[in-house]
Amino acid sequence: MKVLVTGGAGYIGGVVAARLLEEGHEVTVLDDLSTGHRDAVPEGCAFIEGDIRHHAAEALAGGADAVLHFAAKSIVPESMAHPELYWGGNTGASLALLEAVRAAGVPRFVFSSTAAVYGEPEQVPITEDAPVRPTNPYGASKAAIDAALAEHARMHGLGAVSLRYFNVAGAHGSLGERHTTETHLIPIVLQVARGERDHVAVHGTDYPTPDGSCVRDYIHVTDLADAHLLALGACVPGRHRVYNLGNGAGFSVREVVEVCREVTGHPVPAVTGPRRPGDPAVLVAAADRAHTELGWRPRRSALRDIVADAWAFHSAPATGSAPGGAR
Ligand code: UDP
């Protein structure tokens, strides 16, 4: 297929672009490089530098069989401080992209949604039928697009899939997570192990969880990428389908730190700090629907393997401008 990948210079978009190429698809990446890296775009992809609001029509001018839409802001604390960036950059820009998709007659759309749409769940593990009640603007900005996709499917015949990611981590070979300002737990802990930080702060120890710290469901980026390839094949005209992507196992912040200590052999000092605004206590996926309908089978679901792959990426020697996301 001819596929447009927005945000393909980012962590997850870059891995999915690489997997699409491996499967023989023709890939164009559209990315404004606001948080992504030009060298994370896999060799073999066409690349357009620009934002989705203004450059989607140009990127779709040659026709496309599908759009995979990753370009977004994805940091919960930033969304609490600057909700307008999320309503504009995520919701507004995605609506503009959907208009361009409709105008160009693109039949398939796969969207990076998030577990953050569920907010504080009533039942864990969370199924796709759980109420959508985000506790932060990040989740709200994504939930709005899930809703818009349902209508674009119903009214305009789009074949759409929303993939609700739980906590993505790990690396796909030389493609890994590297943000200028890191906020995610596993990369931060690995920075401590590398000696780039003194300690990790555990944000909140008074949650209603076994050890008081937040519980999340960690999923390997390669497994997540595989689900996108399956979703692409599952886009049916006129239908919008939602799938949770997680492993169904919850790990507390303290447990994650402990696994990172074991994998890296570094003591990783941890200090306790206040809660981070907007954080739900527990997010763990029921991904049965992705298993039965998409035939998705995660292959690296053990947290130890996920951390080990992230550690291999983070401890690889810096190679400057090497392709594929090497640092
Ligand atoms: N967290 C933490 N210390 C950090 C970074 C994150 O305690 O330095 C916690 C955070 O509050 C949340 C969990 O780790 O409970 C996962 O956060 P992350 O930002 O990795 O992903 P999110 O769940 O927000 O998408």
Descriptive account of the structure:
With 327 residues, this protein is of the alpha/beta class. It has two domains: 2-166 and 219-244, 3-Layer(aba) Sandwich (Rossmann fold); 169-217 and 248-315, UDP-galactose 4-epimerase, domain 1 (Alpha-Beta Complex). It is 37% helix and 18% strand. It has ten helices and 14 strands. The strands form four sheets. The protein has a seven-stranded parallel beta sheet with strand order 3-2-1-4-5-6-11, sandwiched between helices. The protein has a three-stranded mixed beta sheet with strand order 12-9-14. A two-stranded parallel ribbon has the order 7-10. β5 (108-114), α5 and β6 (159-165) form a beta-alpha-beta unit. α2 runs parallel beside α4, α4 (83-104) packs parallel to α5 and α8 packs across α10 (303-314). The chain starts with a strand and ends in a 13-residue tail after the last helix.
